[in-house]
UniProtKB/TrEMBL annotation:
Residues 17-85 form the HTH gntR-type domain. This is DNA-binding transcriptional regulator, MocR family, contains an aminotransferase domain. Keywords: Aminotransferase, DNA-binding, Pyridoxal phosphate, Transcription, Transcription regulation, Transferase. Its cofactor is pyridoxal 5'-phosphate. GO terms for molecular function: DNA binding; DNA-binding transcription factor activity; pyridoxal phosphate binding; transaminase activity. SUPFAM superfamilies: PLP-dependent transferases, Winged helix' DNA-binding domain. In the C-terminal section; belongs to the class-I pyridoxal-phosphate-dependent aminotransferase family. The keyword Cell wall biogenesis/degradation does not apply. The keyword Transcription applies. Coiled coil: none annotated.
């Protein structure tokens, strides 16, 4: 294809920029140069895909990218045309926003995650086995509504306490006590979900070049945040009963690791839990080497039988654990309420940084979260949630056994949101995801979590129970198609 200045475009698969973005950039340059004037049609997706020798889905993504920047418009039946508004008319006078957008030090989200998100935006009927989020009916919506109707909101409306709303911290302290964690209000920082705790820790307590150890596979691999902070990442392989504590000492000798990030209960993505014996060993080794542990614990209260092992924080005698919790997996991710329990010095430092970033959290969700935790209905909500999650897991397992028989191996764990599955055949993550998207189902490829190809993470929290069979049937068809394409 001829691009700007009549140069022939060549796909560069070695570039870091994904292919669809390379194509979007080429088209943007062609529009800016006047090759495609305002209002003119762009080639059809099929034609352009053939011309460039790429999948049609890549062109669909490239056009979606241009649409989101306002440069082109798409109408059903009349294809994609160059926008007539000021973006399309004089793009050469506008700053190069793409260059700015790529220039900052914060890395963009992983291409697989962006692909999954955009596929869900463009496909209203997608069965979502990718999101680590509860389905709508599992949120405590009725309970929240009755709190809002029955209890007057009379809180002061100025900036709240830098550590988070004092009353919510009182409720959190009581809530954590029931889980065996002694956390006075002064040791709690209320955060915008667990994610903000992880962000503040990487930004404020660590420096570029520091080595940290994370589980392998791990949710943390899905966070470019760790790379953005310039951290060196060391891997602790996860076994059926969690990491091997001796690996911590080895990594310390080899890399002088400065912090450990662990998700000991119903780990994301594997679903495994660190055994009790290993918990004691991890704490002993970390204490001996004086390595702080960040315990990310969003799932312990999803334990189907309420039998999660005590958290590292509950067992911690030496103040070496920074404990992170959240309402996202047990109540509502949209409330954006999480918490960090840490020594006062750390809490003050992080609260000060957050104050500089955004002057703290909004009072409304904090007020609501405090009332929710204190409500009589919350324990019942948790009970209902656990039962529903167990039933959904069972239904997904039934469907997997039916549609995959022996082709997909997995071990179920009594809590969490995910089944971590391994295909018996070698498959390409990319191919399987694209085939699945075409069939209206999404999952997260294992490589997002740092694993080799062939692993997939299926979440049963989000799809409705009645979607489970259809989702797994579509996935099985996608796997067959991927294997057929391979041979
Ligand atoms: C292990 C783990 N930690 C942290 C988070 C972030 O959750 P939130 O910021 O919504 O509390 C997630 C979300 O998927 C997670 O799985």
């Amino acid at each position: 294809m001829n691009g700007v200045y009549g140069m022939t475009w060549k796909l560069d698969r070695h570039l870091k920029t994904p292919v669809y973005l390379q194509i979007a950039e080429l088209l943007e340059r062609s529009i800016a140069s006047g090759e495609y004037p305002p209002g003119s049609p762009l080639p059809s997706e099929r034609r352009l895909a053939e011309q460039l020798g790429v999948n049609r889905s890549t062109i669909v993504q490239a056009y979606a990218e241009l649409r989101s920047s306002g440069l082109v418009e798409s109408k059903v039946g009349s294809g994609t045309t160059v926008s007539r508004n000021k973006w399309g008319v004089s793009p050469s006078h506008t700053p190069n926003w793409r260059q700015y957008a790529e220039g900052g030090s914060f890395l963009p989200n992983l291409p697989f995650m962006r692909r999954i998100r955009s596929s869900m935006l463009h496909h209203g009927q997608m069965i979502d086995m990718a999101s680590g989020e509860l389905a709508e009916p599992l949120f405590p919506s009725g309970l929240l509504q009755s709190i809002m109707q029955e209890q007057p909101f009379t809180e002061p409306l100025g900036y709240d306490h830098p550590q988070g709303n004092p009353q919510l911290r009182v409720e959190l302290s009581a809530f954590l006590r029931k889980q065996g964690i002694a956390a006075p209000e002064a040791s709690i920082l209320v955060t915008s979900g667990s994610q903000q705790s992880l962000y503040l820790i990487t930004q404020c307590l660590l420096a570029p070049g520091d080595a940290v150890a994370i589980e392998d596979p791990s949710y943390c691999y899905s966070l470019p945040m760790f790379q953005s902070a310039g951290l060196r990442i060391c891997r602790l392989p996860v076994h059926h009963d969690g990491i091997d504590p001796d690996d911590i000492a080895r990594l310390y000798r080899e890399h002088r690791i400065r912090m450990l990030f662990l998700n000991p209960n119903y780990q994301n993505p594997t679903g495994t839990s660190l055994s009790m014996e290993k918990r004691q060993r991890v704490l002993a080794i970390a204490a001996e080497l004086r390595i702080p542990i960040v315990e990310d614990d969003p799932f312990s209260l999803t334990s189907f039988r309420n039998q999660a092992l005590p958290s590292l924080k509950a067992l911690d005698q030496e103040d070496i654990v920074l404990y992170i919790g959240s309402l996202s997996k047990i109540a509502a991710s949209g409330l954006r309420i999480g918490w960090l329990v840490a020594p006062q010095t750390v809490v003050s430092r992080l609260a000060d940084a957050r104050q500089q970033m955004d002057f703290g959290l909004s009072i409304l969700p904090q007020w609501l979260a405090g009332r929710l935790l204190a409500s009589e209905g919350f324990p019942l909500h948790l009970l209902t949630l656990r039962k529903a999650l167990e039933a959904k897991q069972q239904r997904m397992i039934g469907a997997l056994e039916h549609y995959f028989s022996e082709n997909l191996a997995f071990t179920a764990h009594p809590g969490g949101f995910n089944l971590w599955c391994k295909s018996k055949e070698n498959i390409s993550d990319h191919r399987l995801l694209e085939e699945s998207i075409q069939r209206g189902v999404v999952f997260v490829p294992g490589s997002v979590y740092g694993s080799e190809e062939g692993f997939i993470r299926l979440s049963y929290a989000r799809p409705e129970p009645e979607q489970m069979e259809s989702g797994i049937e579509r996935l099985a068809a996608a796997l067959r198609a991927s294997l057929a394409l391979k041979s």
